[in-house]
Inverse folding.
């Protein structure tokens, strides 16, 4: 399969799964989101982590507002990403108050406003939670096409857990991937926690 074919297949798969996610009833999304949050907080690598990076959910993604609030309340150092368009990179910044520090930012995603940006060295992060559109059980991930999180992974300490939150229907049997695509180590859904490394 050529690179062009892979890109086409990824785009079609992303569109198909996101259409399902966008059509998910709000009450079902909320209930599944609570189950995913419970699984995340019960997951030892996350529970033991002192500094965690979480994405701020947008549109139909697995909701993370309650996760961020709970992590802060439990005393974790919580980091969220700011998207830097000029080099398609992520700036990890510490968040201390969900209500006062976030406003609509790049792509409409909530981000800390300028006066609350507190940059964090990626090497200080113990656990990273990433978004995505489609996954398979080996950890292959289709994001949103910009590569922000693929590039960010290269800046972390070796061995730092890279985990995705997803609804169960976002996990398919096989996901096409390219050489530069970074796999996730774990996928947490409302029904299971998948150890992707164990499936490779």
């Amino acid at each position: 399969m050529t690179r062009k074919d892979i890109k086409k297949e990824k785009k079609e798969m992303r569109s198909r799964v996101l259409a399902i996610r966008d059509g998910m009833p709000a009450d079902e999304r909320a209930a599944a989101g609570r189950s995913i949050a419970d699984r995340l907080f019960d997951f030892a690598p996350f529970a033991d982590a002192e500094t965690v990076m979480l994405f701020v959910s947008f549109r139909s993604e697995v909701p993370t507002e309650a996760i961020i609030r709970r992590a802060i309340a439990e005393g974790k150092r919580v980091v969220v990403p700011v998207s830097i368009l000029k080099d398609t990179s992520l700036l990890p910044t510490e968040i201390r108050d969900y209500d006062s520090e976030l406003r609509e930012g790049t792509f409409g995603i909530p981000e800390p406003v300028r006066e609350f940006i507190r940059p964090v060295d990626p090497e200080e992060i113990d656990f990273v939670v990433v978004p995505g559109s489609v996954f398979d059980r080996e950890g292959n991930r289709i994001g949103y096409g910009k590569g922000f999180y693929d590039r960010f992974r290269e800046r972390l300490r070796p061995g730092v857990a890279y985990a995705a939150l997803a609804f169960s229907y976002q996990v398919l049997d096989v996901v096409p991937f390219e050489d530069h695509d970074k796999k996730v180590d774990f996928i947490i859904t409302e029904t299971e926690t998948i150890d992707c490394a164990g499936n490779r």
Remarks:
- The chain has six helices and twelve strands.
